[in-house]
Every structure is written in structure tokens, then in C-alpha cells.
Design goal:
By secondary structure, this protein is α+β, with helices and mostly antiparallel strands. It has one domain. 44% of the residues lie in helices and 15% in strands. Strands 1, 2, 3, 4, 5 and 6 form a 6-stranded antiparallel β-sheet that branches. A hairpin with a 7-residue loop joins strand 4 and strand 5.
Length: 177
């Protein structure tokens, strides 16, 4: 299969496994250089993460959610982390965590990863705008998996689009009977 037809997630996995094999990340072997790559990846990924959570807020939470982001932070273990969270009244009332997209590079970790509140560990290989854009489907899957798991921890009633009256806007024109 020509490289141009290899799906981005496959390319990302191969890059990740090669980095594990070689002890590098983005061609760098020093921790400082890897952290610099991670910082740039967070900047490139931020608009994609905000897009995903805004989509969920608009279509599922009916614009009741609040998006927050941390920016790049040093973690207790000496690593780096950045997160984007979406909270809303029903989720808070149910006592479950918000939907979260997190980029993290643990202090004892070799390569950085993406994760959610309940969905764990996807390789983070973002070095360009194109790489960041290719993460859209992965971030959508992480956020969707989080919401699914949070519903199981609480109840379907934490999703306003499911409990709203028939006049509420619905994704793709779907109306309740």
C-alpha cells in the first residue's frame, strides 16, 4: 500500500512503535527535546480538542456545557500535561467527572499520550498542523467513549439532548416521537 494511502492512525502507531524501539520521539533522544516537541504538539492539538468538545456541547449538551483548559503544566512526577474539559450541570449533579481530553508526557514515560477521563492511552505523535488535524477522529472517539462511560456511571439523563423536549434541536434532524 503506498504511504499516501496509509490511514493516519496507522502511521501514528508505526511512528510510536519505532520511537519505542529507538528510544526517540520526533527524532529526539534527550528529555528536553522531547518536551519541546510535546509543548508544540499541545499548541497544535488545542484547536482540535476545543472543536471536539464544542461539537459535543452543541449537539449533545445543548450548549449547557463549560469548556475549560489548563494549558501546559508540570506534573508532580516531573512530566508535562495539558487538558481540555467539558462539564455541564447534569454531569455535576450526578457526581461524575467531566469529559476530558488530556495530552500527557509522564516523568517516567518515554513517549507522550492522549487520554480521556475513562478512556486511556493513545499515542500522541503530533509534529505538524496535518498531524494535529489527523487526530480529530481519535479525539472524537476518546470524548465519545468518555461520555458513554459516564452515562454508565450515572444515567442517560446526564445528556440534555436525550432528555430535552421535542422542540429542542437534534443532531442530524432526529426528533423524538
Amino acid at each position: 500500500m503506498p504511504e499516501s494511502t496509509v490511514p493516519a492512525y496507522i502511521t501514528g502507531l508505526i511512528r510510536h512503535f519505532e520511537d519505542l524501539r529507538d528510544g526517540t520521539h520526533g527524532g529526539s533522544s534527550s528529555r528536553a527535546d522531547k518536551e519541546a516537541h510535546f509543548g508544540k504538539a499541545v499548541q497544535l492539538l488545542a484547536p482540535i480538542a476545543r472543536q471536539v468538545l464544542t461539537e459535543m456541547n452543541t449537539k449533545l449538551l445543548l450548549d449547557t456545557g463549560k469548556l475549560t483548559e489548563t494549558g501546559l503544566l508540570r506534573t508532580a512526577d516531573g512530566g508535562l500535561s495539558a487538558s481540555w474539559s467539558l462539564s455541564w450541570p447534569e454531569q455535576r449533579a450526578a457526581g461524575v467527572e467531566p469529559i476530558m481530553l488530556q495530552a500527557y508526557f509522564g516523568g517516567g514515560f518515554h513517549p507522550p499520550h492522549l487520554r480521556g477521563t475513562t478512556v486511556r492511552d493513545w499515542p500522541l505523535n503530533v509534529f505538524s498542523n496535518e498531524d494535529a488535524a489527523a487526530q480529530l477522529s481519535i479525539l472524537r472517539a476518546i470524548a465519545s467513549g468518555d461520555l458513554h462511560n459516564l452515562v454508565y456511571r450515572a444515567d442517560y439523563r446526564i445528556v440534555p439532548a436525550v432528555t430535552a423536549g421535542p422542540s429542542a434541536p437534534r443532531a442530524h434532524g432526529v426528533k423524538t416521537p
